[in-house]
Task: structure prediction
Amino acid sequence: MIVILKHNPNRDQLESLISWLQEKGIIIHTSVGEAHTILGLVGDTSKLDIDLIAALDIVDDVKRVQEPYKNANRKFHPEDTVIQVGNTQIGGGTLTIMAGPCSVESEDQVVAIAKAVKASGATMLRGGAFKPRTSPYSFQGLGPVGLEYLKAARAETGLPIVTELMDLSQLPLFKDVDVIQIGARNMQNFDLLKAVGHQDKPVMIKRGMSATYEEWLMSAEYVMAGGNENVILCERGIRTFESYTRNTLDLAAIPVLRKLTHLPIIIDPSHATGKSWLVEPLAMGAVATGADGLQIEVHNDPAHALCDGPQSLKPEVFDPLAKKLLKLHEMLKTLEG
Ligand code: PEP
Ligand code: MN
Result:
């Protein structure tokens, strides 16, 4: 349920409404917008008398929210969420470019890539230390030492780091990363979602390969229900009957999610296509469709990469692409006035 308050509501009346609701076990999220303040009520609202609340002097309107996700719902929080990561912001009209290797392979590799992508305009460094691989015989990532190499690359470049958490037991090692990534394969690992909801680092949830928007938003809801509102959504392609590409990029996710949620939306054209030559057109399409950012795999030697070489861009290919993306983003802003 949402309660839309009149402009400048009387403080005492507002406090008594809030404490009355809290006594009924309702959790209240307040969203202060330019025109209106909205109270988002979470909990068992079925017994609340909607007419009684609507009749209060300070209340403009009351609406039931049908969707099962509440905190993630734009109706609860009409303004876009903007997430501060280091000295960069995700959302709110910025274009975040997360770039880096699929897996961290060595300190030299990740530092060199971090320097190159930063020079091209990337705002965050990606790289996996713990890798979810389809085969147990494939490279599984460097583990804790990979996280240390990412931190070394951050110290050299100042780029905040985003890296995947695969298992609850790894969480203590993630205290010093900037954004925790929950991979597609773990989108519905509810224990993991609850755990990252109980800490305060931003969490980027990649869409499960067969997840609906609602299932994906419910995963965000798990994190937010724990108290962590810094959630980012990343579309990385879904499974369809098409086998030419690794997955099928769902660009409609951008306008649909924009309508349903206030959370920032990132597009990953690398895992979506599996082919380096498809990264540029789809990244451009994502910016044109209004994405808040991109996650792109970049490797100094894709032919010898330990993971996902065929979809990785060389730094010299990423460089003009990053510049084009930033330029397109600026051009679109001028069109929107
Ligand atoms: C990744 O970003 O390294 C990754 C494994 O992505 P996804 O979970 O989208 O497959
Ligand atoms: Mn990868």
